[in-house]
């Protein structure tokens, strides 16, 4: 039965991958209708939307947000939609996208830039408001992954829910609530490939606990990859998808070993340094081939700032939720993150 299960999944994955062809030939003028799955990145003079393998650049206004439905037209050239024109924009009316917008708006109202966009990125994976010069610095120092909601965010959300819910309920009743919380957060954070991968793996781990079984991290990683590619085979060429799985595999292979090797490093920095170094072992070749650059000091930069990320996320997450009911109280909670974002 186990062989049949994995064999069927593998076959479905391969069929889905090879059934996807290039829909947009070079030089062809196309019209694309799509729902925006990630927060557009806003630069000084334009906003950028990623659609499959295409980069779509549009004027700053009207402002496009996560969840909006758009119709654009342009000519395919070198993985870009050249001279793109926005034909139609339907603003999202979904509850979660509205909630996400309100929380991000709260951060922008009470924190200066780039503090507000850093908090929004760490907490909700929103890159849309990050100033261009700050984004370049994040990229050059190798810490841009911090503003992409991923596995660490899901772990923090799950841990927070476990800590709160177990005060009131037995663990057996808590796990289904945690699973709901994980997927609500994933939807709120944008459902990008890294967050979906983390949500699937977290669901497998907690589901195994509920059933009284042991969960293999490697099996969960492979299962997550197969399920995601069956649902959306175009992720096979998505750099976020690739980096997420390679970084996770590198962490599982090397982090514990590096942690033992780096005993001389102070405890507050050791976890961040070993985590970053372990992930970089796998992703460095991909980053170099894809972007043509890599900062050798990236693990050091990560070690110096990663310890702030859980604290920033907890403070800004709590303040964001409180802001929906008590905005004045939430403002004072949010200010607690300012020294941490300043250090970052």
List the helices and strands and how they pair.
Elements: H1 2-18, E1 29-35, E2 41-42, E3 46-51, E4 54-59, E5 69-77, E6 80-90, H2 95-110, H3 115-124, H4 132-140, H5 151-165, H6 171-188, H7 193-211, H8 217-231, H9 239-261, H10 267-291, H11 298-305, H12 308-322, H13 327-335, H14 338-343
Parallel strand pairs: 4-6
Antiparallel strand pairs: 1-5, 2-3, 3-4, 5-6
Helix pairs in contact: 1-8, 2-3, 3-12, 5-6, 5-7, 6-7, 7-8, 8-9, 9-10, 10-11, 12-13
What is the count of DSSP helices, taking H or I runs of 4+ residues?
Answer: 14
Helix content: 55-70%
Q: Which term fits the overall shape?
A: globular
Please write the string of helix (H) and strand (E) elements: HEEEEEEHHHHHHHHHHHHH
Radius of gyration: 21 Å
Compute the average pLDDT. Answer: 83
Gap between N and C termini: 50 Å
Provide the β-strand percentage band: 5-15%
List segments where confidence is low: pLDDT < 50 over at least 5 consecutive residues. Answer: none
Cross-sheet strand order for the largest sheet: 1-5-6-4-3-2
Largest sheet: 6 strands, mixed
The number of strands is 6
Structural class: alpha+beta
């Amino acid at each position: 039965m186990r062989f049949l299960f994995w064999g069927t999944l593998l076959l479905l994955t391969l069929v889905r991958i090879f059934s996807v062809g290039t829909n947009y030939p070079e030089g062809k003028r196309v019209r694309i209708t799509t729902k925006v799955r990630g927060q557009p990145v806003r630069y000084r003079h334009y906003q950028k939307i990623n659609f499959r393998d295409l980069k779509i650049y549009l004027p700053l206004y009207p402002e496009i947000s996560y969840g909006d439905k758009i119709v654009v037209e342009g000519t395919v050239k070198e993985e870009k939609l050249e001279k793109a024109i926005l034909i139609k924009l339907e603003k999202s009316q979904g509850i979660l996208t509205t909630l996400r917008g309100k929380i991000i708006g709260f951060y922008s109202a009470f924190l200066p830039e780039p503090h507000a966009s850093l908090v929004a990125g760490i907490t909700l994976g929103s890159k849309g408001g990050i100033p261009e010069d700050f984004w370049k610095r994040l990229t050059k120092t190798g810490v841009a992954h911090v503003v992409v909601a991923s596995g660490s965010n899901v772990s923090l959300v799950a841990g927070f829910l476990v800590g709160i819910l177990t005060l009131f309920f037995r663990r057996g009743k808590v796990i289904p609530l945690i699973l709901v919380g994980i997927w609500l957060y994933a939807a709120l954070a944008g459902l990008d490939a890294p967050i979906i991968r983390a949500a699937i793996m977290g669901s497998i781990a907690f589901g195994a606990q509920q059933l009284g079984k042991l969960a293999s991290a490697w099996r969960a990683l492979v299962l997550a990859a197969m399920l995601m590619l069956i649902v959306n085979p175009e992720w096979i060429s998505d750099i976020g998808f690739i980096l997420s799985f390679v970084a996770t595999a590198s962490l599982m292979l090397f982090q514990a070993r590096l942690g033992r090797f780096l005993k001389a490093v102070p405890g507050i920095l050791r976890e961040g340094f070993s985590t970053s170094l372990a992930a970089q072992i796998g992703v460095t070749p991909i980053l170099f081939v894809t972007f043509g650059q890599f900062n050798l000091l990236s693990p050091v930069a990560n070690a110096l700032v990663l310890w702030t990320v859980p604290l920033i996320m907890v403070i800004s997450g709590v303040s964001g939720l409180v802001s929906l009911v008590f905005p004045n109280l939430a403002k004072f909670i949010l200010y607690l993150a300012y020294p941490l974002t300043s250090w970052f």
